[in-house]
Amino acid sequence: MTFDDVIGTLVLAVESVGTLIMVGGGAVAFLRALLELRRPDQRKGAYQRLRRTLGRAILLGLEVLIVADIIRTILVEPSVESVLVLGAIVVIRIALSFSLEVEIDGAWPWSRWRTRATGDSRSE
């Protein structure tokens, strides 16, 4: 087994973990929401909690997938073209992460202190 084979297997494992985080986190978020909807005292806010939990699972999965892309680019294919592709992938995933965070928190990152000061629970 060569070094490239080992790194390829490692990258595949990291990508699998990222995918499992998103799929598993999504399943847990939906199951939790279904359980909350069955209880009248927890129905209020169940949709917002579902969105927040699902968004956090997606964010974590995206961050793990970025790690796999970095490993692949630096250790397997260290060329200018692969670094540029990595840069584009990272920029796209950062933009996705940023937009998901804004969607989850309901505020721009630089104005989160305002929601914390007012006691808004979405920033938790």
Task: Walk me through what this model shows.
The mean pLDDT is 84. The protein has helices spanning 3-38, 46-76, 80-105, 112-118. Helix 1 (3-38) runs antiparallel to helix 2 and helix 2 (46-76) packs antiparallel against helix 3. The chain has 4 helices and no strands. The protein has 124 residues and is mostly helical.
Mean pLDDT: 84
Helix amount, in percent? over 70%
Class by alpha and beta content: mainly alpha
Low-confidence stretches: none
Tell me the distance between the termini: 46 Å
Q: Helix segment count? A: 4
Element string (H = helix, E = strand): HHHH
Biggest beta sheet attributes? none
3D shape: flat
Computed over alpha carbons, the radius of gyration is 18 Å
The portion of residues forming beta strands comes to: under 5%
Q: Total strand count, please?
A: 0
